[in-house]
């Protein structure tokens, strides 16, 4: 009967919910020790200048490898870390590690930018600005080369509050990017009144752009808007030459995606950068630099 099948479905969902809750608890349990156990690492994905094809810097992306759970995606553990109050500490780790890595690269002559993700919860904590200034101050890395990426969804707080969090950092030369732009349903008027420097177009708008006219129109409008607002633009998730060509033609300033490289270890990132330098000197990369 209908009643019977309804009950079955209900108990099916109960089992699912219980399983999900158990899984969560298991991850949370390991997450609490992850920092102390040294299970986090940071990988770097090149950001490429769209017209010169050169690597201008990278985005730092967090990785968690637990002996029992294996590699866990940040999409899964970042929300949990936020709920458990662990994100400020983890965020500080990312900041420290990536700045010290980029300082080392700088010492060997590579002048690169670094973009670091800041979670909404991390950003909204009162102590965020002071703590971040502290870590940045100790890093021996030029703050004009540091960009903080904040997702649109972080911007639930009042505009005044957001501005207050941003300004002391901006005064020191740090820039800010809106991450995953177009996915957060935020108030466009508020968003554009805040002192953001960069707009990152979400990958969902970039993917298979050649197959979808609506998507193409939307991306053109976003790029036009950014230009009118004097914002730099980054297109994330570029995987194909076709996508690169569209985004480049329409004036996206910087590209990021598997077309160039996935996020890689510091050593591999250094190799990518150094390879480029060698090619430049021999002149064999003409086609890349004359795009
Ligand atoms: P995000 O900041 O938007 O980062 C871009 C994500 O897209 C990364 O996933 C990256 O590996 C992936 N990606 C880049 N290019 C391509 C491409 O061409 N194709 C495809 N399919 N994917 C591409 P990842 O590393 O798994 O990170 C996922 C999200 O987790 C990030 O999205 C960010 O929101 C969050 N996250 C990562 N690291 C941190 C961190 O240190 N702190 C905070 N708060 N969040 C982080
Ligand atoms: Mg990001
Ligand atoms: Mg993004
Ligand atoms: Mg994204």
TrEMBL record:
The keyword Transmembrane helix applies. Keywords: Membrane, Transmembrane, Transmembrane helix. Residues 24-277 form the EAL domain. The keyword Transmembrane applies. This is Bifunctional diguanylate cyclase/phosphodiesterase. It comes from Roseibium aestuarii. The chain holds residues 407 to 697 of 699 of the full protein.
């Amino acid at each position: 009967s209908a009643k019977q099948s309804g009950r079955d479905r209900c108990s099916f969902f109960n089992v699912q919910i219980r399983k999900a809750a158990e899984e969560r608890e298991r991850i949370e349990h390991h997450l609490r020790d992850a920092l102390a156990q040294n299970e986090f690492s940071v990988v770097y994905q090149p950001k490429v200048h769209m017209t010169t094809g050169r690597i201008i810097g990278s985005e730092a992306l967090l990785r968690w490898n637990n002996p029992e759970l294996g590699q866990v995606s940040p999409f899964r553990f970042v929300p949990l870390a936020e709920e458990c109050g662990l994100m400020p500490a983890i965020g500080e780790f990312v900041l420290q590690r990536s700045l010290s890595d980029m300082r080392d690269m700088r010492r060997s002559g590579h002048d690169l930018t670094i973009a670091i993700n800041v979670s909404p919860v991390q950003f909204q904590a009162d102590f965020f600005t002071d703590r971040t200034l502290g870590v940045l101050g100790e890093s021996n890395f030029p703050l004009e080369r540091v960009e903080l990426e904040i997702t649109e969804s972080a911007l639930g707080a009042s505009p005044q509050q957001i501005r207050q969090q941003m300004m002391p950092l901006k005064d020191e030369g740090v820039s800010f990017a809106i991450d995953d732009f177009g996915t957060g349903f935020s108030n466009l008027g508020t968003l554009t009144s805040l002192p953001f420097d960069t707009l990152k177009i979400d990958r969902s708008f970039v993917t298979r752009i050649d197959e979808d006219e609506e998507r193409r129109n939307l991306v053109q409008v976003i790029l036009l808007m950014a230009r009118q607002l004097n914002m730099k633009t980054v297109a994330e998730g570029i995987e194909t030459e076709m996508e690169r060509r569209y985004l480049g033609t329409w004036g996206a300033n910087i590209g990021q995606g598997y077309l160039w490289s996935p996020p890689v270890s510091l050593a591999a990132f250094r190799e990518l950068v150094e390879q480029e330098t060698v090619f430049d000197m021999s002149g064999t990369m003409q086609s890349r630099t004359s795009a």
